[in-house]
Design the sequence.
């Protein structure tokens, strides 16, 4: 949301005080202006400077009256007049100057490149905020942007071996697929360079490049006696986050993250399944287990694919722009067919938004364990050194109003705790001890009250792994509409009920005993 800043051409091995000054002014302004809570800039800057001791343990920061002293054990101390507590620019100037002075006396700091110094200061500074605010240097920021927005490449996953580069998989609708590259191909040369001499980093660098540029791959393929040269024209590649894992009347779709192509790809997969199965399709399993999250707007768009109206999520913070409300627009690409969402304790952030939105709308049954509870939004600010600063600037709330921070999403159907098998779950569902009561699921304890949060989360203890029981229960519910309706409880929308009515009448030639179980 911040405008792109000017490029920093500082060599990685040097330290330029004026460039550092610009860097700290930009980053400190971002922290002071956008972090979710009011900050004390003096405390944060001091914590950042104290972090220099992780590079040189002889360095200490001392506060004496209105002076800040950088002291070196066995050496002299340097004093700086303390600015006013929230004079942002003055603390930025002091930080850059203090690092410069400390470097003049510390061999360890002199041997550290500029990027390490920046990272060290921000490790100390951000430790005073929260675990999700982070600083990324130029290399990591470049990788972050590639994961979010894409990069110039060919669209393959690779493994480095002594034989060369093995193609693990080829992404759909990518230049590599169009050019005929196949999984298990062995790439022996990239533009004439022997791949056995390349590290993984060097190989990736050669495979990526400018959009629409060409790269030639010399491939060894099983069944061919000679090398196969393939020319591939690079295109923008966005990492694939949606995979159709299984289709057999029930579509099992795994969503591993949320980047800018996630909702589009999910839409394509749902359409593909519907065309392939037609009226034989019983429903969808959207698997968010282990999904760490990603882009907020993609979480909203994914939810909106299946919800006709109503609130999806709202965000609330200190900055006026953080007060946002996202509502669904008409249209359900699944045409009311039943949906199950799978979550576990590694389902976080954007995946929790989707699970809560579909659950509160009565559009899906959520199965698994309590989710992670990463209920905050980070805003990403570009910095003058081409790095970036991700700052927590809002908390998000489910449509029913509860804050997801710390507490996470409670599933409708819990598969942890005393539950041992899918039959245990179905028995609990028939006896009325599941789904978890709607009023319990919507409790919103204060995120600063760990005892209350633990009490709530104990209703469905966390599980980190993707257990088979989750999918077994999902398939049973989608195969037996009456059980699915029970699992939804009293929140099923009319469109879902209509879909079940159609589905059950279409199965009227099947034994009635199956529906009555």
Sequence:
């Amino acid at each position: 949301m911040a405008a792109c800043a000017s490029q920093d051409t500082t060599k990685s091995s040097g330290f330029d005080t004026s460039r550092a000054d610009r860097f700290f002014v930009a980053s400190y302004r971002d922290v002071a202006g956008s972090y979710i809570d009011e900050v004390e800039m003096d405390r944060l800057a001091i914590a950042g400077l104290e972090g220099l001791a992780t590079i040189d343990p002889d360095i200490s920061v001392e506060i004496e009256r209105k002076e800040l002293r950088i002291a070196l054990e066995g050496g002299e101390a340097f004093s700086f007049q303390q600015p006013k507590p929230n004079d942002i620019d003055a603390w930025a100037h002091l930080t850059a100057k203090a690092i410069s002075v400390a470097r003049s006396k510390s061999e360890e700091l002199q041997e550290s490149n500029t990027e390490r110094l920046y990272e060290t200061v921000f490790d100390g500074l951000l430790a005073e905020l929260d675990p999700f605010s982070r600083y990324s240097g130029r290399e990591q920021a470049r990788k972050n942007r590639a994961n979010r927005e894409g990069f110039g490449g060919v669209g393959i996953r690779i493994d480095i071996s002594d034989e060369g580069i093995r193609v693990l998989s080829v992404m759909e609708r990518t230049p590599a697929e169009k050019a005929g590259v196949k999984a298990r191909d062995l790439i022996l040369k990239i533009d004439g360079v022997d791949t056995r001499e390349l590290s993984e980093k060097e190989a990736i660098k050669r495979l990526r490049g400018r959009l629409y540029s060409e790269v030639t791959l010399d491939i060894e393929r099983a069944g061919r006696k000679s090398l196969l040269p393939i020319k591939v024209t690079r295109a923008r590649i966005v990492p694939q986050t949606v995979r159709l894992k299984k289709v057999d009347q029930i579509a099992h779709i795994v969503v591993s993250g949320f980047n800018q192509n996630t909702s589009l790809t999910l839409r394509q997969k749902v359409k593909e399944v519907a065309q392939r199965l037609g009226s034989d399709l019983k429903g969808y399993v959207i698997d968010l287990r282990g999904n760490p999250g990603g882009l907020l707007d993609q979480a909203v768009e994914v939810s909106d694919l299946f919800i006709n109206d109503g609130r999806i999520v709202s965000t609330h913070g200190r900055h006026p722009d953080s007060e946002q409300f996202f509502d669904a627009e008409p249209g359900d690409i699944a045409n009311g067919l039943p949906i199950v969402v799978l979550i576990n304790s590694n389902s976080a952030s954007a995946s929790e938004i989707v699970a809560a939105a579909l659950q509160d709308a009565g559009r899906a049954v959520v199965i698994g364990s309590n989710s992670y509870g990463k209920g905050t939004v980070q805003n990403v600010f570009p910095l003058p050194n081409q790095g970036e600063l991700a700052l927590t600037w809002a908390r998000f709330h489910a449509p029913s109003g509860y804050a997801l921070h710390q507490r996470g999403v409670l599933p409708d159907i819990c598969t942890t705790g005393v539950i041992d098998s899918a039959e245990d779950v179905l028995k609990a569902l028939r006896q009325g001890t599941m789904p978890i009561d709607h009023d319990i699921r919507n409790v919103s304890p204060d995120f600063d009250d760990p005892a209350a949060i633990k009490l709530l989360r104990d209703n469905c203890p966390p599980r980190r792994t993707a257990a088979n029981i989750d999918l077994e229960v999902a398939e049973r519910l989608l195969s037996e509409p009456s059980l699915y309706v029970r699992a939804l409880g009293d929140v099923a929308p009319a469109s879902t009920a209509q879909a079940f009515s159609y589905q059950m009448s279409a199965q009227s030639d099947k034994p009635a005993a199956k529906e009555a179980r």
